[in-house]
Design a protein that fits this description.
Number of strands: 12
CATH class of the largest domain: Alpha Beta
Number of domains: 3
CATH architecture of the largest domain: 3-Layer(aba) Sandwich
Distance between the termini: 70 Å
Strand content: 15-25%
CATH superfamily of the largest domain: Periplasmic binding protein-like II
CATH topology of the largest domain: D-Maltodextrin-Binding Protein, domain 2
Shape: rod-shaped
């Protein structure tokens, strides 16, 4: 089936509004002959004369009168669709946004984000989903509106990325732990019993690689899937956890944190979204909220140290 020329809708709307080939041609900045040819095409397409001569002028046929309001509404709807998005009244928006985040992110940054969203847009609901892997499929399929995490090889290249903050790994123990006193050397650090944070249940990571480069090895006694679980265990045991500093700022309250005695590369935590939501004004606003909340939280935590 051949698709009709949708540009004819605009021509038909103007012809039916003006009731004159000459005036319609002037309004659309066409020559009278070009408008006459367009009217001929419309007659052929609709199977109706549409405008017929009555004395010196043209009058609409019953079919034209039937179409006039419908065509006008269609053209108005099309213009609205193609017009740039207007300023959104956030107070009237009712939507749910699903954010997939790593363990500890909600506990550390969630309260400020929720407070900010509720104040500006009370009709927006946030749904936080745990990030169990780096698969980009949920973003592509629209199951997730935004992701947070470290960009890796599994991140699809078509996704949009904006950095939130850089972070470094630090060691954490309970107050009163032997590492709270004296210099923390690589040997003392390695000699303790450690918690490994791994979503894939791995028992080795960058810390082990760094220790091995110094001829050392550590004992991993416990493996957990997230930072909040690791820190909960640290509070009640003599275990040592290695966690990202800024990502876990408030979660470490009351614990003893220290710089690692081995070199571990810093990471950059980013927000990630699908290009389909690039121009969505509400999604743009939420992205800026998340960026501001992370910046403010990291700044406050830095001032506390």
């Amino acid at each position: 089936m051949t698709m009709p020329d949708l540009n004819l809708l605009i021509t038909l709307d103007v012809l039916l509004t003006e009731g004159s080939v000459a005036r319609a041609a002037q309004r659309l900045r066409l020559s009278p002959s070009a408008m006459s040819r367009a009217l001929a095409r419309l007659r052929e397409t609709t199977g109706d004369p549409l405008l017929v001569r009555a004395g010196r002028g043209l009058v609409p046929t019953p079919r034209a009168l039937e179409l006039r309001e419908r065509v006008s509404l269609l053209v108005q709807d099309a213009e609205t669709v193609l017009r740039p998005a207007t300023v959104i009244d956030l107070k009237t928006v009712k939507r749910t946004f699903t954010l997939r985040t790593s363990d500890g992110f909600v506990e550390n940054f969630g309260p400020r984000l929720v407070s900010r969203v509720n104040e500006a847009a009370p009709g927006i609901r946030l749904s936080f989903m745990p990030k169990t892997n780096k698969d980009s499929a949920p973003l592509r399929e629209g199951l997730v509106d935004m992701d947070t995490g470290v960009i890796g090889e599994n991140t699809s290249p078509e996704l949009r990325v904006r950095a939130l903050f850089r972070d470094r790994f630090i060691g954490v123990v309970r107050q009163g732990h032997p590492l709270c006193q004296g210099e923390i050397t690589a040997a003392r650090f390695a000699a303790g019993r450690h918690i490994m944070v791994s979503r894939r249940n791995l028992d080795k990571g960058p810390v082990d690689d760094a220790l091995q480069a110094s001829g050392l090895a550590r004992e991993v006694s416990i493996i957990v899937g997230g930072f909040s679980s690791a820190l909960a265990l640290v509070r009640e045991t003599d275990l040592i956890a290695t966690v990202p500093e800024r990502h876990t700022g408030y979660l470490r309250a009351g614990l003893f944190s220290f710089a690692l005695p081995v070199n571990i590369p810093d990471i950059t935590l980013s927000m990630i979204w699908h290009p389909r939501q690039d121009a969505d004004p509400v999604h743009q606003w939420l992205r800026q909220c998340l960026k501001d909340v992370c910046t403010d939280t990291v700044t406050d935590q830095s001032n506390m140290i």
